[in-house]
Amino acid sequence: MLERRVLIAMFDFETLSTGDGAAGVYVPDNVQITHVSRFGTTAGSPGTATIDLQDDGTDISGATAIAISANGLTTLTTPASVAAASVIEVDCNLSGGTSPTYTGQIGLWGFVDE
Questions:
Q1: Contact 82, 30 (CB under 8 A)
Q2: Burial classification of residue 77, based on how many CB atoms lie within 10 Å of its CB (0-12 exposed, 13-18 middle, 19 or more buried)
Q3: Looking at the predicted structure, is the pLDDT value of residue 1 above 60?
């Protein structure tokens, strides 16, 4: 069987500030997140700009403190497995600067069980 990486979820943020559960998506099937892409900008000069991925409100090991201050693609050191009927949440962590925000897109890439 051939496997192909797919876009699991895409989040579009407009002036996102720090917050837990900034966005989420329900997954009907088992998924394995292998990459996180981002394309956007920060404002307010944050010292740090990262996201954490959560599975039903719990941090996913190896999928925390993913830098979003520069555009690009991050390969997770350990693929993050999320069970069917779960919610994948994106938590935003911005600190420093003056009222820092993030505007852009965050994409989650990986594999879906068939």
A1: yes
A2: exposed
A3: no
Q: pLDDT for 48-102, tens place per residue? A: 999 999 999 999 999 999 999 899 999 999 999 999 999 999 999 999 999 999 9
Q: How far apart are CA 89 and CA 86, in angstroms?
A: 10
Q: Pull the structure tokens for residue 77.
A: 């050191």
H helix count then E strand count, the chain: 0, 9
Percent pLDDT > 90 in the chain is 83
pLDDT of residue 18: 84
Residue type, 105: Q
Residues 85-104 as b or e (16 or more Cβ within 10 Å = b): ebebbbbbbbeeeeebbbeb
Residue in this structure with the two tokens 């911005």, named with its chain if needed: 94
- The 3-state DSSP class for residue 56 equals coil
